## 1
Amino acid sequence: MEHNSRKYQYCIEACQRTAALCQQCASACTRDENISKMARCIQLTMECAALCTATAQLLCMNSSMAMELCNLCEELCEQCCAECTACNSDICRACAEACKRCAEECRQLAPVAA
């Protein structure tokens, strides 16, 4: 277990950081003057935060389902990154960067079979 925990550490940390930044981003976007234009960003960041949290938890538990969750996490982080990249706020840009890194970490752990 200790060996796997070390193997997963970078991905766990990336997931946890991304979850936190996604929550901050969603919260900030709810305060936008034109909240309706932020609906997709808010939805994606909330979903991404939830999935990143779950992925980190299952990696910590060395779950047999962790790699499947890593694949889903990678996909959702990429979508969230694309959405947040289009925004002008600092928190959205920070969220996009975290999502990009998290997707890369997940990809290294659980590459999708072509």
## 2
Amino acid sequence: MTTNPTMAAEIKAPILQEYSRDQNTETHLANNPSKTILLLLQGVVDKGNLAKVCHQSQAFVEKGFHLGRMTTILDALRDRLAFSQETSIAYDLEELYRYADKAVQEAVFEQDCFYLDSAVEILTELRDAWLEMMHQSGQLSEND
């Protein structure tokens, strides 16, 4: 069986188009680490909520996928911590991220959503506090 090369080149996968890289966005995020943290926190909360929906609908493979993404995002958040005597909050955030990650690991096999709810609650509070800090410091306007 042969494939028409013109036709194959014209086919575009819509899911891949969503994730195309945008140099302007990447540059903006590189220059605004606080916004990057906010996006990561939002992403981990979103993945947690998706994992809860999957658990409730007994879509356990999909739940595992979202839990894995949560772990990846938590690793990315931990990688951005700057540990020094002047940044004692970094140590506290490390402990919260570690606790949330352990809860995510426990959520893999749990029958209810106790651990997953716990992780999502902590991460939601962190996201909300980060968002408030960005508004108060002027890094984010009400329209962002």
## 3
Amino acid sequence: MTLGVALSTPGDGNAVDGVVALAREALSAGLTSAWLGQRFDYDAITLAGIIGREIPELRVGTSAVPIFARHPSLVIGQAQTVQAATHGRFQLGLALGSALTERAFGVPFSRPVALLREFLTSARALVTTGTADHHGELLTVAPPFPAVVPGAGTDLPILVAAMGPKALAVSGELADGILPFLAGPATLERHIVPVVNAAAEAAGRRSVRIIAFVAAVVTDDVEAGRESARAAMGLYNTIPSYRRVIELEGAREAADLALVGSAAHVRAGVKRYFDAGATEVVLTQTDLLGIGVQRDTWNALGDLR
């Protein structure tokens, strides 16, 4: 069972130094990968590259970089630079984004699945051939010079935070894997894994990676953990793509999908995701009750086999 962890920068001190230190702790606990979500402060691709360069035993990735207001040439240029810096241990996670993108950048959140198809098509060409000649409805990707970073190779994993049927179909056809979050085991098994792998098979490809992101906190104070999860995860209740998978699982709110409790309870919960078809699990929200509980969580789960 492959386990990774989603990291957040500490609230004080130097953000980069702090998250590198956290990544070292995660590795020591037995976790094998570190993932950075894209926010409105740090740059996730850059930060993943720094961590991967500092800690050569750890795989790194983004979870995930929204494609709206970003051009494939620029994103792939960043990603290939980091892939070379980490000697092949970087994984590029992309996201469709949400109305938050429109609010932040003034770019209409329109036709996200169509944009995803064009973004993935051109991104794959850039990675595998070092160039692209894409002239679509929504994107033009035609660099006038070779777009190759020596040392990056041609096998950069491109992953998508896809959960809806249309996005899953495009991801199965064109991406290397998906990054579902708040999709519980039943939803994963019935509504996500079969759809994305059917699309991959129809495209003549092998099954894709299913990297499930799972909120997990090992604690004796279950009520405090639940309250913290409600406060931290409430935003997801308002975003339609997350609302859909929450309801598919039969849950009322995002916090209901968090695994909170004893080490045995959380370990059993994580195993259910693997049983449902996840090829990897990434632990998220492990800092809900502070750094001490986060360490306990990592140490309790790092040796899960």
## 4
Amino acid sequence: MNHIWGLLAHPGREWRNIDSEKESITHLYAHHVLLMALIPVVSAFIGTTQIGWHLGGEVTKVAMPTGAVLGITFYILMLLGVAIMGNVIHWMSDSFASRPSRRRCIVFAGYVATPLFIAGLSLLYPKAWLLVAVGIIALAYSGYLLYVGMPAFLRIPVNEALTISGGTLAIGVLLLELILALTVALWGLGFDDYAVSWSLFR
């Protein structure tokens, strides 16, 4: 919780604090990623099964079993996404003499994703305008964490941080869209029919 507040309140100083801990990937996942990734998953499960999507004036709810399956899938994809983004950052920093290790890059990616995890609270009330507004703010702040953290945590020169931050953020957005697309694709493969069957059974 200290790191979360620090990254939101004073990111420059907090990156240095995180750097001093020499955190392992296992510790990152056990104490941060596994817990933070539950925020959007649990929020989406509650929002879609209890409140429902507001589409064209109509409310569409998801059946509980369907929501559980989609939630687990979404959760696994997010955990993989952090590792993938860490490897992307490691690859993009290949041209620097002080190239950060893969471990540092994955730890970096895990903390950069913090605003996106917190933004998942908006899924408790799944309205498109709210999700878009909160998502834009979260992406913007993640971009800021990238820019501040590159020199403070990854030792990448300040004059190169903006370029790499922009490229990394663009790839991150594409990865996020891919995760959402895969989740929606699962819905299209038949979970929607299962939702109808569950509703009729009840």
